[in-house]
Amino acid sequence: MPIKFAAVRQLRKDKKRAANNQAIRSELKTLVKRLHRLVEGKHAKEARALLPMLAKKYDAAASRGIVHRNTAARHKSRLTLQVNKLS
């Protein structure tokens, strides 16, 4: 348990930030799963509509430091390749 009051406040902030970051990571995983289902089901139109939104979410997460920018770029690239293979 922290001794100083400032450490208690910091711990409170850290818990809130961790919860927010986890929610964003979870949302990214959910969107990726949805995109994979669309690709497997050969729904090219829906997959193309979802891809820009997913890329935007990855960029936002990378700019906030939730995922590394290279990781975001790699995921966006691989997902784009999968969607492009449909057509």
Care to describe what's here?
The chain has 87 residues and is mostly helical. The protein has a single domain (5-85), classed as Ribosomal protein S20 (Methane Monooxygenase Hydroxylase, Chain G, domain 1, Up-down Bundle), CATH 1.20.58.110. Helix content is 84%, strand content 0%. The protein contains three helices and no strands. The protein has helices at residues 5-40, 44-63, 69-85. Helix 1 (5-40) packs antiparallel against helix 2 and helix 2 (44-63) runs antiparallel to helix 3 (69-85). The protein is elongated and about 60 Å long. The termini are far apart. The mean pLDDT is 96.
Order of helices and strands: HHH
User: Mean pLDDT, rounded to whole units?
Assistant: 96
Distance between the termini: 57 Å
Look at the structure and name the CATH superfamily.
Ribosomal protein S20
- SS element count, helices: 3
Question: Spans with pLDDT under 50 lasting ≥5 residues?
Answer: none
Concise overview:
By secondary structure, this protein is mainly alpha-helical. It has a single domain (5-85), classed as Ribosomal protein S20 (Methane Monooxygenase Hydroxylase, Chain G, domain 1). Helices cover 84% and strands 0% of the residues.
Tags for this entry?
87 residues, mainly alpha, Methane Monooxygenase Hydroxylase, Chain G, domain 1, 3 helices, elongated
What's the layout of helices and strands?
Layout: H1 5-40, H2 44-63, H3 69-85
Helix pairs in contact: 1-2, 2-3
